[in-house]
Amino acid sequence: AAGGAGGALGLPTSDVTGLAGGGSFAHFEHGSIYSSPATGAWVVSGAVRDRWAAAGWENSALGYPTSDVSALPGGGSTAQFQRGSILWTQATGARVLTGAVAERYAAAGGPGGVLGLPTTDVTGLAGGGSFAHFQHGSIYYSPATGARVLTGAVRDRWASAGWENSALGYPTSDVSPLAGGGFYAHFQRGSIYYSPSTGARVVSGAVRDRWQASGWENGPLGYPTSDVTALAGGGSFAHFQRGSIYSSPATGARVLSGVVLNRWAALGWENSALGYPTSDVTALAGGGSFAHFQRGSVYSSPATGARWMPTPIRDAWGATGWEAGPLGYPTGDPQAISGGTRQTFQHGTITHSTSTGRTT
Q: CB neighbours of 358 closer than 8 A, spacing ≥ 6?
């Protein structure tokens, strides 16, 4: 059927030889024919045949061929086998794809899909995982997460973090597009988000959960501009296009933005006199805003700017009605005086005595 002695295979160089299970084969000048009761008889030749031979013929992980070797668009050749395929081009060599990675590659469009041609064989990983790299990305598989397609800047960031051995673990989603040219993928222990203006950033833990609760990249914070970074004592933070999230075991994860964030940053972040935030930044009538911290608060208004106050003065001010009370907003930061601390407000002052603990 392939043209006999005048066909592409040329003349036989071996007899037909029987194989276990009822299979048989013969070699020819330019290839081979392999047959089994389950698959029928197929022609294998060229670099695909050579790669299959190197893998162990029908006893390899691929099993018997289920198609002839055929041409790939743009050059190269391929053949299907019982448990995978081999694809060859001059540029990429002959590559073996098997298992869940091969299935995901086929579902993604195969050689004509987004990934292009394989540049490695499917390779096993600890714990039953496997992967293969392609011209335009990778597929990673684990029994717990399935086979996922990773491409572009998200894949590159995961690679730089240490692939599946990183803090993120295996991917649990494909890389997916977002409005405005962004991309993301979720992993076992976090996510990577990318936009053209912010690059690819790793978000994880309590910071990621808080960002998710705020609406991901469509929320008020926008995309991350830094990875989640660990702080002493179990804290962590990440900066975003329009604010930051800071977390500690004692305070939870809190969203800070605008002039309140800037004032806290100028004081020294979590190492300042205020410590970690215990609330998100909250808007007030008339353009004001505030956030509470472990040892005080920052309050801001257009007329007075952003001012911080320690807990004793803050609590005394709160007892008068906060910014809506007779004192109004603070107009300066606390100042040390003999025996204590004093802070000025729009309509008065509060003085805290260090020796007595009283405020007036």
A: 352
Residues 6+ apart with CB under 8 A from 177: 183
Q: Report the alpha-carbon distance of residue 351 to residue 295 in Å, rounded.
A: 17
pTM exceeds 0.90 for this model: yes
- Three-class secondary structure of residue 78 per DSSP: strand
Helix (H, G, I), strand (E, B) or coil at 143: coil
Query: Dihedral of the CA atoms 218, 221, 224, 226 (nearest 10)?
Result: 180
Distances (CA, A) of 178 to 185, 194, 195, 217, 247: 11, 9, 9, 9, 27
Cβ proximity of 179 and 168 under 8 Å:
no
Containing 349, the helix (H) or strand (E) segment is strand 348-353
Calpha distance 231→206 (Å, rounded): 13
The two three-digit tokens of residue 261, written as one number: 């964030």
Per the CB < 8 A criterion, the answer to whether 351 and 337 are in contact is: yes
What are the average pLDDT values for consecutive 10-residue runs of the chain, which has 360 residues? 96 98 97 98 98 97 97 95 97 97 97 97 97 98 98 98 98 97 98 98 98 98 98 97 98 98 98 98 97 98 98 98 98 97 98 95
Distance CA 265, CA 267 (A): 5
- Determine contact, residues 129/140, Cβ cutoff 8 Å: yes
Tell me if residue 282 falls in helix, strand or coil.
strand
Question: CA torsion 97→98→99→102, rounded to 10°?
Answer: 30
Position 153: which residue type? A
